[in-house]
């Protein structure tokens, strides 16, 4: 298995029906701060981070790593999709650590929820990843209480491998085996 850090990066911007996925730029900084400071976004992610701390610590160009996509709608950043190295430090079994080396994450601003943008963006990112690293599985963690995220994981083709307790809540661990990119 290969690591997402070995991806050829950046790709050309990926255009979907309504969105553009692209590498990070300085203009994404405000959205990244908003995503991390938002109580709604942080509900199942350990809570929001203090805005003043984010203003101090978020780099001028946030998210500069292979697999980190800013998601743009009509020129505005509405969220991020990340294909990142599966964190081997996470508490858990060897079984989970060996399931895949790439993990999907997604964060969207609340104003953009409920319109299918996350599904559209994640599908495009996963299709790109499958083209770049054919045969590589992708793993996903989410709290089971995070119903929109659970629905999204299912729509994207992740299937449950395990539920476990960590960080004070029940966690869901799923895997998406490599499939042919959608047309
Ligand atoms: C997880 C998260 C991305 C899901 O967002 P979402 O808005 O529910 O997901 P989508 O953008 O794909 O929208 C899907 C919803 O839009 C609806 N929808 C409306 N118009 C649509 C369209 N044109 N196409 C597709 N779906 C559409 C769907 O029916 C669906 O509603 P439902 O979930 O009630 O069935 C969002 O809740 C979020 O950013 N949460 C905070 C971060 C987080 O918890 N991340 C998880 C980390 S693992």
From TrEMBL:
Pfam family, one: Acetyltransf_3
One Gene Ontology molecular-function label: acyltransferase activity, transferring groups other than amino-acyl groups
KW Zinc (keyword) present: no
InterPro entries, A to Z: Acyl_CoA_acyltransferase (IPR016181), GNAT_dom (IPR000182), N-acetyltransferase (IPR051531)
Highest taxon, organism lineage: Bacteria
Sequence segments annotated as region (Disordered): 40-61
Keywords: Transferase
Gene3D superfamilies hit by this protein: 3.40.630.30
PANTHER family, per the entry: GNAT FAMILY, PUTATIVE (AFU_ORTHOLOGUE AFUA_3G00765)-RELATED-RELATED, N-ACETYLTRANSFERASE DOMAIN-CONTAINING PROTEIN
The protein, known as: Protein N-acetyltransferase, RimJ/RimL family
């Amino acid at each position: 298995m290969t690591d997402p850090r070995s991806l050829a990066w950046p790709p050309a911007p990926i255009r979907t029906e309504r969105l553009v996925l692209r590498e990070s730029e300085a203009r994404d900084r405000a959205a990244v701060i908003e995503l991390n400071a938002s109580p709604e976004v942080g509900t199942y992610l350990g809570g929001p981070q203090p805005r003043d701390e984010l203003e101090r610590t978020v780099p001028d160009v946030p998210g500069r790593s292979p697999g980190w996509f800013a998601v743009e709608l009509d020129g505005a950043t509405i969220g991020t999709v990340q294909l990142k190295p599966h964190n081997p430090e996470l508490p858990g079994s060897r079984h989970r650590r060996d399931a895949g080396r790439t993990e999907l994450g997604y964060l969207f601003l609340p104003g953009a929820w409920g319109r299918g943008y996350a599904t559209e963006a994640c599908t495009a990112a996963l299709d790109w990843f499958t083209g770049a690293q054919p045969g590589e599985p992708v793993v996903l963690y989410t709290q089971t209480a995070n119903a929109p995220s659970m629905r999204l994981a299912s729509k994207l083709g992740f299937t449950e491998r395990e539920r476990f307790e960590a960080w004070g809540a029940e966690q869901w661990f799923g895997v998406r085996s490599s499939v042919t990119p959608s047309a």
